[in-house]
Amino acid sequence: MKRTLALGNLLPRIRTLYAAEEIDPGTVRTLTLATKRQQADWLKLFDDPNAYAPRNANLKAWLLGGQTIKAEHALFDVAASGLATLTDLFGDAPCFADASAFWAAQNAAIEARREAYEAQGWSGVVILPPSDHFASWEYEKCPKRKGGRVYIDVRGSGEVVIHEGYLSRAHAKRAERAAQPVADKPKRPEVTSAQQTYIDLHRRAAVAATLTEHPGVALRLMLAFTMAGSPLWNVQPERAVARDEATRESVETCRAETAFDVRRRAVLALLGFPPDKPTVMRSYGSDDRLLVSIFLRLLDLPDAAVLDVVAVVMGETLGVGHVAIEAVGVTLGVDMAEWWQADPAFFDLLRDKEVLGAMVAEVAGQTVADANAKEKGATLKKIVSDHLAGTDGRQQVTGWMPRWMRFPAVAYTERGGVGSVRANALVATAKAEAMQPEPDTGLGPNPEVPDSGGSLPLAA
Predict the structure, then answer these.
(1) By CB neighbour count within 10 A (0-12 exposed, 13-18 middle, 19+ buried), where does 227 fall?
(2) Comparing C-alpha atoms, which of 195, 127, 139, 131 is closest to residue 167?
(3) 297: buried, middle or exposed (CB in 10 Å: 19+, 13-18, 0-12)?
(4) Rounded CA gap, 209 and 446, in Å?
(5) Residue 150 and residue 60: Cα distance in Å, rounded?
(6) Which of 339, 345, 451, 344 has the alpha carbon at shortest distance from 405?
(7) Distance CA 400, CA 138 (A)
(8) Rg (CA), the chain
(9) Which of 69, 201, 311, 437 is the most exposed place for a label (fewest CB within 10 A)?
(10) Mean pLDDT across the stretch 280-300?
(11) For all residues of the chain together, what is the average pLDDT?
């Protein structure tokens, strides 16, 4: 019924244009706000080919003097103000007919709010005009007792948002500085920076010379530097990260990693570190306090215990794929069969059929390898795995090790591309060079190098 009354208030010409679909529903709905005179003026614009008849939201602004302000935004009593409001009977929110009259009443109400807040004891009440905006990230919460302010944010739509207890970041910093006690004037140091450099250089030279007579102390200090870090040291624990989950799980659960973790936990307990610490080594940076703490603790330990710590720290800092792995493995005669056996992750990564054929020959014999030379890689993998497990009627083979995993590492083909084999070549070359006799210069022993008389003791 309300809609019918609203449409009935329109001039007949407007209703005719709407029925002929020359005026859209949104424009007709807005025209119900207009007086008869405004409707007639709008029809003149509509009929004038050189003029523009506003539609929809533009029409509403045209009817209301250029600005649409909802009555709900008023801080004053709308009914008592006597200001005219309009509604199109299609919506629930009436609007002020005269925007300038609204702002006169609204500004008076805002000023009254400001005076009320000042009377309550706020340190300041700031009115932000429609051209400004209260950006919350530029302010900090601050209670009234600490100098907080009230910000009255006036919007162009007529809405007013009040923010109590805030300070701009600039004001907050000034207040923080003002609250801080005045620092005493810095005292002049006892020595100049140049004098300190002189002192430090001579003290370092004396300690370095004395350390040469106490190799046990030097070893403990070196170990402390390795574990705690130093600006002159760059040693980090190997993270041993693999890209695929299967490889990570294979390494984390293998016998060698488990055995090493047992020794690591023993060293953590020896040094008084938490048992759940992932590494004995510090992962990054340096910590002077930790350095001194570790050094003093190591001084209290016997040589055997210190060497246990050395072994774990060295193990944590062995780089994956580094040539040192091959050098140590060959030197100590590491038997990989004691630490590793083929698992699904290993077989999943095998792709080369020539290599698979050679592996079949190692575990099943050349006759079987030749008979299955044209089989798929999956079949060759199964032959190898069945022989290693002794399943599916295959004779079990124990202690088998891929050539790449052995110490020394050997390749299956001449194609290269195996990191452990390259490392073994470097180790072999270094060994050959070390075994060559030094050229006789005819000068005898170097008089500048004193005879140590044998190896130095570990602890002085």
Answers:
(1) buried
(2) 139
(3) middle
(4) 21
(5) 34
(6) 339
(7) 69
(8) 44
(9) 437
(10) 86
(11) 82
- Average pLDDT (71-87) is 84
- Strand pairing class (160-168; 139-141): antiparallel
Q: Which residue, chain included where needed, has tokens 């030279």?
A: 205
More confident residue, 370 or 168: 370
3-state SS assignment for residue 294: helix
What single string gives the DSSP state of each residue in 390-428? T-TTPPP--S---GGGSSS---SSSS---HHHHHHHHHH
Exposure of 312 in the CB half-sphere (CA atoms within 13 A) = 23
Whole-angstrom distance, CA of residue 428 vs CA of residue 430:
5
What is the rounded distance in angstroms from the CA atom of residue 251 to the CA atom of residue 128?
64
**Average pLDDT, integer, range 427-437:** 86
pLDDT digits (tens, 9 = 90+) for 113-161: 989 998 898 888 898 888 777 777 788 888 888 888 899 988 877 888 8
Nearest to 407 by CA among 430, 431, 424: 424
Q: What is the mean pLDDT of residues 197-220?
A: 84
Cα–Cα distance measured from residue 140 to residue 172, given in angstroms and rounded to the nearest whole number: 7
Q: How far apart are the first and last CA of the chain?
A: 108
pLDDT tens-digit profile of 397-406? Answer: 999 999 988 9
Average pLDDT over residues 167-190: 75
